[in-house]
Amino acid sequence: MAELHLKSVEKTYGNGFKAVHGIDLEVAEGEFMVLVGPSGCAKSTTLRMIAGLETISGGEIHIGDKIVNDLVPGKRGIAMVFQNYALYPHMKVRRNLSFGLKLKRQPKDQIEAATNEVSGVLQIEELLDRLPKQLSGGQAQRVALGRALIKAPEVFLFDEPLSNLDAKLRASMRVRITDLHKRLRAEGRPATVVYVTHDQVEAMTMGDRICVMKDGHIMQVADPETLYERPANAFVAGFIGMPEMNLVPAVFTPGDAPVLELHGQRITVDHGLSERVKNVTGNVTLGIRPQQLQVVKSGTDNAFTAEITNLEFMGHEVNLHARIGDADFVAVIPSERFDNTLNRGDQVGLKPIGSHIHLFDADSGANISIASN
After folding, report:
1. Percentage of the chain exceeding pLDDT 70
2. Which CATH number is 4-234's, of 3.40.50.300, 3.50.50.60, 3.30.710.10, 3.30.70.20?
3. Topology of the domain covering 244-371
4. What is the pTM of this model?
5. Interstrand relation of 293-296 and 282-288 (parallel, antiparallel or unpaired)
6. Which has the closest alpha carbon to 326: 307, 344, 341?
7. In angstroms, rounded to a whole number, what is the distance separating the alpha carbons of residues 186 and 180?
């Protein structure tokens, strides 16, 4: 395996459209890096440039100690798993797995040993004599993974490999892939992985680190906990987390008793926030996660008064939607603590937990409540 390094990588198409804007990214040897972002953010384009399926317009791509800008895909030491698996329909699973090794004219006994090892690791021995059309979606995905694994590449590239599976199977395959990655690392065969997805649940549960992208720019690269607890900007804050973070315009006044004002309502924030935002004042974007927004009685001190607009029973929790002026909020309440007498149109108090409040610059979107530490 090898590390991967993107240095000022750009992609500009013939019509002048710039899809990727000079990004820098380092993926350590054996690391599971996830590229995540909304459709059109250039995450798949970035992956295809690493693979050599797209030319780059500027910068350098390093795999190990080699610059691979001008190398064809077959010379880059990569293996790619696609969204549609791209299995050869006329070949049985055994031959699908071994075909790449046969093209390299490896000895027959080595090919057989590698096929048996990979099928054992992925628990697909019973599928070796089946055709792709006889496989379920999950089975086909494991065969595609095996075909990549058998090549022993320097870098594995995954392009939304689970998007065609149903929700239950996606959850199962997430566990299989991450378990395989950890097992290979424990066995001294670390796999360097770049995994593209638009699904933030996949990103948060699978990645050692996550690269959040928007419009061909990297917005933040960090481990899942840091992205959730310390988002660098309002975009990352709104993209990571379910339900998404509440982001609304507000006014902040610092002092011994700092005040947040929202649509004429004012609350005093606690020490947990005031110590982080000593130099912040004026118009801001208030950010608070639904799980960190307390629902209290209307009129409670240091709580905004809001009107309930909707209630969603989710089983173990309730999503309470409420509005303050034209600002919409969501609060997540554990079902056992939810007041069943509440209905749409009722007024409640929404009390942000001060130590979990984020303040973002109203213009740039930067998280000024962590930058001012």
Report:
1. 97
2. 3.40.50.300
3. OB fold (Dihydrolipoamide Acetyltransferase, E2P) (2.40.50)
4. 0.90
5. unpaired
6. 307
7. 10
